[in-house]
Amino acid sequence: MSKTVLLKATLDVGMPGPEHFEIVHTPVPAIGDGLLVELHAISADPYMRGQMRSTGGYKAGKPMAGFVSGKVLESKLPEWKVGDLFGGNLPYVSVQTVSVAQLKASPFRRLTELVSEKELGLGIGALGMPGATAYGGLIGILRPKAGDTIWVSGAAGAVGGMVGMIAKNVYGCTVIGSAGGPEKCSLVTQKFGFDHCIDYKTCSSTKDFIKAIRKVSPKGIDMYFENVGGMHFEAAMSCLRPNGRVAVCGAIAGYNDAKPTPEKIHITNLIYNLQRVEGFTCEPWLVGGRDDFLGDMAKWIKEGKLQVEETFFDGIESFGTAFQSLFVGGNTGKVVLRVGPEYGGGATPAAKL
Q1: pLDDT band, residue 161 (cuts 50/70/90)
Q2: At CA 124, angle to CA 344 and CA 156, rounded to 5?
Q3: Residue 351 has pLDDT above 70, yes or no
Q4: Does residue 67 sit in the same domain as residue 170?
Q5: pTM (global) more than 0.90
Q6: Which among 268, 284, 300 is the end of a domain?
């Protein structure tokens, strides 16, 4: 048998938690025309909260889906061998088939030469969607130059930490982060190597944030990587220098609200200061359409330029708790739900084909 994470009911407002999900047992299907795979890691990501709304992509009584990594159990395809490791976007079903059509539609990536089975969390982290988001947003959108100053909100999270480390260790930028509480700020400066970290819990207003930024960087910032929204964005725009760039990745501050409060900025400043604000998604880099995301990230990890931080939850039954951790400050770095056979996620021997 296989295990599946179902959404019990859509949720328009409020905090998601274990009560909003259900784990069901399902038979392992026949392999079909593609692959039979076993998931070893599944991802909990902030963007999934919007998909839980009645207007979102997840439906009550249907499987959750998102970024996963795992191992090939059986293959009908010459390019995929039994034992190959992969990253992809699939339903949260512990053992499942992947058709040829799914392989073409999904950003399916071979990880066999890049990680071991024990490192498959990297397939949904530094070598997955968060890594591609950090890489693409910094390199493709912000286009850093040596000596630039960048502020990264959500700096203790899966994306923010990697943005700062790449900016610092690859491009030679001065890096400011913001995170919630002294413990996370210490992680950001001591492990990730940021030059400064602002504890946003000490800032009760946009003015407080502006003062905190100006204290560590009196001349302002050249780049801002947006993960949070709200007063973070307003403060960043007030401190952005001429020719400054903003990459908008997320706005987690308002994800649980019925109607998030819109940010207030002076758009005429964009004109006369020649500034640029750009939203983006990671897909062009994740699927290999732009630059060399997998090659560069694997190289930087090996060289020690990226320090991987992961928060682990074990067993597919822990999905609700893992997901909720994103909104209550219960994680640092990437949330990884380990669901391989050693965590009760594999098929029973009798069910394997």
Answers
A1: very high
A2: 110
A3: no
A4: no
A5: no
A6: 284
